[in-house]
Specification:
The protein is α+β, with helices and mostly antiparallel strands. Helix content is 38%, strand content 21%. The chain binds adenosine-5'-triphosphate and magnesium ion.
C-alpha cells in the first residue's frame, strides 16, 4: 500500500512535537493572563453552518471546502475555519445569556481547505484562535490584537507588522458597495471571471483578488476607510487609541478585507517575511453580524485565527528556539535477570515521583544500552547488576561531566542523587 500522507498534510513527528507543546504552553499562559477560556468544538459540522457563517461568496466556500455526505445523506463539512463552529456552540449552549463578553480561545484546531499546497499553505493546518462575543467597544478589538502580539513576544518572535483596517458596517457599506460597483463596472471587461461574479454579489471581495489584473484595477478603487459612517469612524479611532495604550505600532492598510463575508468594522493581519508565500501569520476582525446570520440574537463578536504551522515557520526562519525535546533524567542499565526486575521496580517508583527514567526493552548488551542512553541524551546513567544488588549501592554517572556519585537503591535516594549532580 502507498503510505504517503495525503497531499497538503503534514505529520508532527516525535522529534518535533515538543515545539508544538511549547507553543501550546505559551498560548495557554497568554490566554490565561488575558482571561480567555478554552473551547473545543467538533472537527466537522453541518455544511450549512459554513455556508451561512463563512459566506457563500468566499473562496473558502466556493472552492476550498472538504464536503461529503454521511451515511444518512447529511451534508457534512470538515472545519474550514474556527469561528463558525464556536459561534454555533455558543448559540446552542445558551452561553448567549451569560455575562458578557464571553472570551474564548481554541488551540491546535485542525482546519481543512482544498488549496494548492505550497510553502506555508497546507490542506490541513492548525489554528490558535480567539473569539470574544458580546463586547462592542474597540478596547476588546485592541485586546485580542494585543493578545496575539503578547504571544509572539513570549515566543521571541519579532519583525512583525500589524496591519489594520475598517471595512464598515451595514450602515455605511451599502452606499460604499454602490460606489465600488460603479467603479469596477466601468472596467468590468478587464476583471477576471470570478470578480465579474463578485461585482454583483460582493464587490468588496474584488479588493482581495489575487489576480494581478484585478489587483491593478483595485489600486484605484474608492476606499471603505474614506466612506465610514460616524459610528465606524469613532470605532476605528478608538481602536487606534487602545492599540497605542497597549504600546503597539500598526500600519493602516485600506486593502485588507479578509476572507469571510461577515466581517464588520475592524479587520487586521499580522504579517512576517518568514511566513511563506502569503506572509500572514494571524488574521482576524470583528463580525457583528455573524450570530444573527446564524439565527441567533443580534450580538457582536470579534476574533482571530493564527496558523500554527506558519507560526513555527516564522520561529524557524528567525532562528528562535522552540524549546527543548524530552530527554530522560536517568537511564538504568540493567545486567542480568534479577537486576532487570529490580531496575524495572526502581524505574516505576521513580516515575511515580515524577523523575523520567528509561530502561531497556530490547535485550541489549550493557554496551548497547550505554550507546542507547547516549542516543536518548539521558542526563544520567547507572548500571545495576548482581554487585549493586548485593551491596545495595548504585553509582550514578552524570553524562555531561562524567562525574560519579553514589547512593542507595531506594527511589528516594536515587532521586536525591539525581538532583545533587
Ligand atoms: P491566506 O491569505 O494565507 O490564504 P486566509 O486569509 O485564508 O490566509 P484565515 O482564514 O484568516 O487565512 O486563517 C487564519 C490563519 O490561518 C492565516 O493567517 C494563516 O496563518 C493560517 N492559514 C490559512 N490558510 C492556511 C493554509 N492553507 N495552510 C496553512 N496555514 C493557513
Ligand atoms: Mg486563504
Amino acid at each position: 500500500m502507498d503510505y504517503r500522507a495525503p497531499k497538503g498534510t503534514k505529520d508532527v513527528l516525535p522529534a518535533e512535537s515538543h515545539k508544538w507543546q511549547y507553543i501550546e504552553r505559551e498560548a495557554r499562559a497568554v490566554t490565561k493572563a488575558f482571561g480567555y477560556k478554552e473551547i473545543r468544538t467538533p472537527v466537522f459540522e453541518h455544511t450549512e453552518l459554513f455556508l451561512r457563517g463563512v459566506g457563500d461568496t468566499t473562496d473558502i466556500v466556493q472552492k476550498e471546502m472538504y464536503t461529503f455526505e454521511d451515511k444518512k445523506g447529511r451534508s457534512i463539512t470538515l472545519k474550514p475555519e474556527g469561528t463558525a463552529g464556536v459561534a454555533r456552540a455558543f448559540l446552542e449552549s445558551g452561553l448567549v445569556s451569560a455575562p458578557q463578553p464571553i472570551k474564548m480561545y481554541y488551540l491546535n484546531c485542525p482546519v481543512f481547505r482544498y488549496e494548492q499546497p505550497q510553502s506555508g499553505r497546507l490542506r490541513e493546518h492548525h489554528q490558535f484562535g480567539i473569539e470574544a462575543f458580546g463586547a462592542k467597544e474597540p478596547s476588546v478589538d485592541a485586546e485580542i490584537i494585543a493578545l496575539a502580539m503578547a504571544l509572539f513576544k513570549r515566543l521571541g518572535v519579532t519583525e512583525l507588522a500589524l496591519h489594520i483596517n475598517s471595512i464598515g458596517c451595514p450602515e455605511c457599506r451599502p452606499a460604499y458597495n454602490q460606489k465600488l460597483r460603479e467603479y469596477f463596472e466601468a472596467q468590468k471587461a478587464m476583471l477576471c471571471p470570478v470578480c465579474n461574479d463578485r461585482l454583483e454579489k460582493n464587490p468588496l471581495r474584488i479588493l482581495d483578488c489575487k489576480e494581478d489584473r484585478c489587483q491593478a484595477i483595485a489600486k484605484g478603487a474608492p476606499l471603505m476607510l474614506n466612506n465610514l459612517c460616524p459610528e465606524c469612524e469613532t470605532h476605528f479611532d478608538g481602536l487606534k487609541e487602545f492599540l497605542g495604550a497597549a504600546g503597539l505600532n500598526y500600519e493602516i492598510d485600506p486593502f485588507i478585507v479578509r476572507g469571510l463575508d461577515y466581517y464588520t468594522k475592524t479587520v487586521f493581519e499580522i504579517v512576517s517575511q518568514y511566513a511563506g508565500a502569503q506572509g500572514t501569520v494571524c488574521g482576524g476582525g470583528r463580525y457583528d453580524g455573524l450570530l444573527e446570520q446564524l439565527g441567533g440574537p443580534k450580538m457582536c463578536g470579534i476574533g482571530f485565527g493564527m496558523g500554527m504551522e506558519r507560526l513555527l515557520m516564522v520561529m524557524e526562519g528567525q532562528g528562535v528556539s522552540a524549546g527543548e525535546g524530552y530527554s530522560p533524567d536517568l537511564f538504568l542499565i540493567a545486567v542480568g535477570e534479577n537486576a532487570k526486575r529490580r531496575a524495572f521496580e526502581i524505574c516505576m517508583e521513580l516515575r511515580e515521583s515524577g523523575v523520567s527514567v528509561e530502561v531497556d526493552h530490547c535485550a541489549r548488551s550493557v554496551k548497547a544500552q550505554m550507546k542507547f542512553a547516549d542516543k536518548l541524551s539521558a542526563r544520567h546513567t547507572a548500571v545495576i547488576g548482581d554487585d549493586e544488588l548485593a551491596s545495595g549501592k548504585l553509582r550514578i554517572r552524570d553524562m555531561k561531566t562524567g562525574e560519579h556519585s553514589e547512593c542507595g537503591l531506594s527511589s528516594d535516594e536515587i532521586a536525591n542523587a539525581l538532583l545533587s549532580t
